[in-house]
Each structure stands twice: as C-alpha cells, then as structure tokens.
Amino acid sequence: MKKKRRSQRIALLLVIAILLSLFVAIAMVMTMSGCSSREIVGLPEDSGGKTVTSPAGMTGETEVSAIRSSPPSSSSPPTSTLNTPKPTLSKTSKTLRTTTAATSRQTESRSRASYGPPVMKAPGAVALTFDDGPGQYTGELLDALKEYGVKATFFVQGRFAEQYPGLIRRMHQERHGIGNHTYSHRFLSETDEATRRSQLARTSDAIERITGVRPRLMRPPGGYRNGAVFREAGRQGMAAVFWDIDTADWKYKDSQYVYHYLLNHTAAGKIILMHDTHKTTVDGFIRALPVLLDHGFTFVTVDELVELRPGEVYPLRWR
Ligand code: NI
What we know:
Layout: H1 2-49, H2 61-74, H3 85-110, E1 119-120, E2 126-131, H4 138-148, E3 153-156, H5 158-163, H6 165-173, E4 177-180, H7 193-211, E5 217-218, H8 227-235, E6 239-241, E7 245-246, H9 249-252, H10 255-265, E8 271-275, H11 279-294, E9 299-300, H12 302-305, E10 306-307, E11 313-314
Parallel strand pairs: 2-3, 2-8, 2-9, 3-4, 5-6, 6-11, 7-8
Antiparallel strand pairs: 1-10
Helix pairs in contact: 1-3, 4-11, 7-8, 10-11
The structure holds nickel (II) ion.
C-alpha cells in the first residue's frame, strides 16, 4: 500500500512538473510573439504615419536633427539584454528588417521614380526665400532686390496674395519665384485631408488668377510635414521645399541680428529662410545684400537652384 501511494505521489508530482513546464513554455512563446507583433504594428506608424514637426514653429536645424535621431532610439531593443542576449538580438534584426521593408514600401508607393538625387542646376548659388507674406514691407524688399538685380523666392499665404495682388503681380513680372505657403498658414500635418487639400488649392488658385501661372513649389508652414502632406503637394503638382539655413528672424525681430546672421551663415548652394512680414528682416536683409554681393555670392530662385518634380522633397533630409 505504502509503495503504491508513493508511486502515485511520484506520478502526481511528475504530472505537475510536466504541466508547469508546459505552462512556462507557453508563457514564453506568448510573451515573445506579443513583443514582436507590437513592434511590427508600431514601426510603420513611427516611420511613416507619425507627424514629424519642428516644434517651435519655424526653428531650424537643431530640432530637425533631434527629430531625426529619435526614430532609431524608439526602435532600439529593451534595456534588459543581459539575461537573454540571443532573442533580443534576433528581435532587433527582425525589427530593423521590418523598418527597412516598411520604409522602402512607402518610398515606392509615394512616387516610384521621383526620389533620385536632386539635380542641382546652380550649385554655387544661394536661394533666398521669404515666407508668410506678402505684407506691408514686401514692396520695399522688392525695390532692393530690383536695385541689385537679385532674384528671390516668396512662399506666400493665399489670403495675403488676395489682399496684395499687386505685389504678387510684381514678383511674377520681376521673375521672382512664387511658392504656395497655404491659404492661412495651417500646419498641414495637423489637419484633416480636406483642409490640407483646400489650403493648398485655394492658394494656388489665387496665385494663378493673378499671374496666370500655378505654383510648382510649396513650403509647409512651420515645417510641419508627413507623407500625407507630400502626397497632397504632389497631387497638386508641387514639390515641397524646406530650407538649409534658418535665420530665426521671426524670433529675434532685430535687424542687426538678421544682418550679422546673413553675413556669418550665407553659404553656396543653400536655401535661406526669412520672413518678409517683419520690418526687422527686410531692413537687416537690405543692409546685408550689397555686402554679400561684394563677397561674390550669387542669388537664384529655388527653381533655378534645383530641379524638382511634383511630390519631391528638398532638401532631402526633410523627407
Ligand atoms: Ni510660415
């Protein structure tokens, strides 16, 4: 009897042990598949759907690099790598493969052949760009540009194009570039599709009514952008143009600051961002312009600097 009871007890223990190990194995499998599926779901969102912005409005390069460095850290493996190095490593490579595949799929679907290296048409020249106008200081700016025979590009708001049609006409007649900066400075990645579409279309309509030409370039207000913004721009026949050098003129509103910034930072092949809606910008720029010309800089419109097709993004790092 004793023997029988002991063997029964052993059998029971064995069954419990088997059940326990089964349970542990199932739990492990569930945990691992749970992690990887979460990452696979999350990543395409991170790499494509998520809004990438330059937070403080139009600030430039530091925020951009911060934004660009964030996706890799969000997809990096969890910190507890010591106990289970192998699964973590394989998970990482799986994650990376997923990211690459998702990114290349998106790139392909956006525009199959349009994302080659940009064709620089005037590599040594500088493109001056003025956003948010036209406004009450734009006429004075146009006078100075005319005096020195310099061409710039204006990314205008549709509502102000309607308010100052004479200035838009003059920009066109004097062969400056005119780009679309939405109808009322809406952050395009933050709006719904219908708003995005109408903000761009109304502005292009206004520019076309005045000049007879539809703009082929647009600049998203505040630099707020995502794939949907680029696709809509492309559908409406425009490339998205950002900048290389952000003067942050809107922040400092100081003509001396603008003057020195331009003298210190103007560089060949670059696009410079300013806003003709500030008197301080127009004043500082007008003082800096003859000095920059003396230094040998040549100025062209964005159109003359680089060849861009609808749906493309320039400079490439903004994509
Ligand atoms: Ni703007």
